[in-house]
Amino acid sequence: MTEEVRVRRAVAADAAPLAELAARTYFETFAAETPPDDMVAHLAKSYGERQQSEEIADPDAVTLVAADGGTLTGYAQVRRYPPPSCVTGEAPVELRRFYVDRAWHGRGIAQPLMAAALDAARELGAPRVWLSVWERNARAIAFYKKFGFQDVGEHEFWVGTDCQMDRVMVAEI
Q1: What is the dihedral of CA 140, 98, 96, 69, to 10 degrees?
Q2: Does residue 129 have a pLDDT over 90?
Q3: Which residues lie below 8 Å from residue 8, measured CB to CB, with a gap of 6+?
Q4: Structural domains in the chain?
Q5: How far apart are CA 12 and CA 14, in angstroms?
Q6: Surface-to-core class of residue 47, CB atoms within 10 Å of its CB (0-12 exposed, 13-18 middle, 19+ buried)
Q7: What's the pLDDT at 3?
Q8: pLDDT of 140
């Protein structure tokens, strides 16, 4: 990781730049495989400034940002949220989002961001973390496996009207 990049909890002032980063990274990652109208609908529903403000303020979630000075380079979010039935055990926390800006890939940001996300999950009282990842996102699946996540099942993920299949992964923390 570069000397300037720091991982920290998001604050209210991060909502607008986080909304831009979140929409852009999601689009870059999935637009080639998603119908354009469905992508537009999903981005509008999930990544607006209002949505980011609400998520930052949510007491059942922790939103983290990686920043190089005033520039956000990545983000992660963990939250208390009911898991799919393939996730067992008490009090799992969801790693809901985990993205690094494409320009910052390979620069050592993802590892400390994941470490901070797992620490945040512990702060929320979780003995384990679950996530869902698109079954065709081999790079992300390989990354999660490096942190001890194991595939435990699948569930549907809707992007607009496009039903995609996600793998569900769990790691003990």
Answers
A1: 180
A2: yes
A3: 64, 65, 67
A4: 5-172 (3.40.630.30)
A5: 5
A6: buried
A7: 53
A8: 95
Q: Are 129 and 91 in contact (CB under 8 A)?
A: no
CA distance 73 to 83: 28
Long-range contacts, stretch 159-164, CB < 8 angstroms, 24+ apart: 159/30, 159/34, 159/38, 159/39, 159/41, 159/42, 160/34, 160/35, 160/37, 160/38, 160/39, 160/40, 160/41, 160/42, 161/35, 161/37, 161/38, 161/41, 162/34, 162/35, 162/38, 164/34, 164/134, 164/135
**In this predicted structure, what is the pLDDT of residue 1?**
47
Q: What is the C-alpha to C-alpha distance for residues 87 and 128, in angstroms, rounded to an integer?
A: 10
Name the pLDDT band for 2 (thresholds 50, 70, 90).
very low
pLDDT, tens digit, 9 for 90 and up, residues 14-33:
999 999 999 999 999 888 88
Task: Report the pLDDT averaged over residues 77-90.
Answer: 94
Q: Please report which residue ranges of 2-48 form alpha helices under DSSP H.
A: 15-30, 36-46
